[in-house]
Amino acid sequence: MLSGELATVLSLAAAVFVGASTQRISGMGFAMVASPFLVLVLGPHAGITLVNLLGACSSLMIFVQVFRQVQYKKVMLILIPAMIMTLPGAWVAARVDGPWLSIGISLMVILALVSSFLIRNLPAAQGKGLAIGAGAVSGFMSVTAGVSGPAIAGYAVASRWPQREFAVSVQLYFLVLSCTSLLAKGGLPQLPVGQWIGCFAAMVVGILLGNYLAPKIPPKYSRVFVVLIAFAGALGLMIEGITALAGR
């Protein structure tokens, strides 16, 4: 293998490894951690499609280990409105200018995350309405911005969803949304065999590391990590939109 090809494989594997271990420890973050690096190496279309595929595989691998612990009713409450909102999300994404859409969504996410800390002591935070609303916003964002986690993280904070239960339950949610996105795009990226092997090997090792670390990390620290990842995703979207506007 040539040195350039080896460097590409190692770059992809490193991003996937960190994303997979983050996903297993905190319950989310694969796309937000891995996608910037995968897009940088492979380009926007192939990079995002690979993120969708590996995100689905990562969630599936975690889900089959923890499916008995998943709170299915709670997941369905956010998943159904999320899937419904992918339809208007696709309509908006096709008509609204990309940079402005990214900036608007990032502002909404930051506002939602901040508000989640303010309303978590209110009775409404435990109701179905907030769950349905969070799912709807997340599904809308998954199509328009490729990021569905921050809205769900805000709901987890507001509703005081225990971190360990949240981390295993949302794997089903991310699995379904990732598969939906793959079906909508209608194809897989064309990569050399070495890159496929490197990505999937890194994903397995990352999840194994996450399996080892997850029980050792106190839930309160994992929850802080989730919130930080969500804020980072929102800020990344904002920077991406502002950079795109500045480059015109």
Instruction: State the separation between the terminal residues, measured CA to CA.
Output: 39 Å
Could you say which overall geometry the principal axes of the C-alpha atoms support?
globular
Structural class: mainly alpha
Radius of gyration from the CA trace? 17 Å
**Counted beta strands:** 0
| Strand percentage | under 5%
Low-confidence stretches: none
Largest sheet: none
What is the mean predicted local confidence, pLDDT?
A: 83
Order of helices and strands: HHHHHHHHHH
Q: Helix content range of the residues, please?
A: over 70%
Describe what is shown at a glance.
The chain has 248 residues and is mainly α. Helix content is 83%, strand content 0%.
Spell out the key features of this protein.
248 residues, mainly alpha, 0% strand
SSE topology sketch:
Blueprint: H1 3-26, H2 30-42, H3 44-66, H4 72-95, H5 98-119, H6 128-144, H7 149-158, H8 163-185, H9 193-213, H10 219-246
Helix pairs in contact: 1-2, 1-3, 1-8, 1-9, 2-3, 3-8, 3-9, 4-6, 4-8, 5-7, 5-10, 6-7, 7-10
What does this molecule look like?
The protein is mainly α. The chain has one domain (3-246). The protein is built from ten helices and no strands. The protein has helices spanning 3-26, 30-42, 44-66, 72-95, 98-119, 128-144, 149-158, 163-185, 193-213, 219-246. Helix 3 crosses helix 9 (193-213), helix 6 (128-144) packs antiparallel against helix 7 (149-158) and helix 7 runs antiparallel to helix 10. The radius of gyration is 17 Å and the shape is globular. The N and C termini lie far apart (39 Å).
